[in-house]
Specification:
With about 270 residues, the protein is α/β, with parallel strands linked by helices. Helix content is about 25%, strand content about 20%.
């Protein structure tokens, strides 16, 4: 395996996908045929699905919150945070994941992730779009919601946290403190624009090294990041168990599971 030469890298952009969380036990909730409890994934992950059956959609994301709350950051998440503490340059971490594992791997907030697809740790008002920390599992069939473990106790007591307010419910689902309108998961659904795109594109255009970790290369716009960074002169590195459709734009391919390859490469 070739080793990355960090001596000349001053501006690093990282993109992480589902592969970095695989060793933490994060499942995709897809069974055979791309189904979740006999529902197509598109039936629980679109604005139209939420408008039609918010209880079903909240049950889906509550189950995802519960799973993510039980998961722990693995060696790849930890290695990136440790690397950021020592790296004498600029680092931008972009993640397609919503599981919050990058944040929970932090020791001193060295590496704040740009969550382009949102995060399971937050909800937002469907009326004014105010965003709140919220790690509750909203399962109307069980009565009152329960904690999922995604947030620390001090975060739950934060002035922005939903638990700091008296929760009002509508058919077992949460209403926003601001407008008393239904809260929705702070997740980018099919048909919606990913978050922070101007900031992401600006980082891709100025980086001198771009590393993609555990991505499939088929979900856009993230699938275009390799080519964009390469076109602006960046060296490109791929950490993945399989090659990507964009392999022609990869300078260095490091094959294997992220929890093994990332700690080996991200060391100073």
């Amino acid at each position: 395996m070739s080793q990355i030469d960090w001596s000349h890298v001053k501006n690093l952009v990282l993109l992480s996908g589902a592969g970095i969380s695989a060793a933490s036990g994060i499942a995709t909730f897809r069974g055979s045929g791309g189904l979740w409890e006999n529902h197509r994934i598109e039936d629980v992950a679109t604005p139209e699905a939420f408008n039609q059956d918010p209880q079903l959609v909240w049950r889906f994301y509550s189950m995802r919150r519960l799973q993510a709350g039980h998961a722990k950051p693995n060696e790849a998440h930890k290695a990136l945070d440790a690397f950021a503490e020592k790296f004498n340059g600029e680092i931008t971490l972009i993640t397609q994941n919503v599981d919050g594992l990058h944040r929970r791997a932090q020791k001193k907030s060295h590496l704040d992730a740009i969550c382009m697809h949102g995060t399971l740790e937050k909800s937002r008002c469907t009326h004014c779009h105010e965003i709140y920390l919220d790690d509750m599992a909203w399962l109307p069939s069980e009565g009152m919601p329960r904690q999922t473990g995604l947030l620390r106790t001090d975060e739950q007591a934060n002035s922005d946290a939903l638990s700091n307010y008296k929760i009002k419910l509508s058919d077992g689902l949460p209403l926003s403190p601001c407008c008393q309108e239904l809260l929705r998961p702070h997740i980018v659904w099919f048909g919606e624009e990913p978050l922070f795109m101007p900031k992401i594109f600006a980082s891709l255009e100025r980086c001198d090294l771009f590393a993609s970790i555990g991505t499939s290369g088929v979900v856009y716009p993230a699938a275009a990041f390799l080519e964009i960074a390469k076109s602006h002169g960046a060296e490109t590195v791929l950490f993945n168990v399989e090659s990507l459709p964009q392999q022609e734009h990869v300078d260095l391919y490091i094959q294997g599971p992220a929890e093994e390859t990332v700690p080996q490469q991200f060391s100073l």
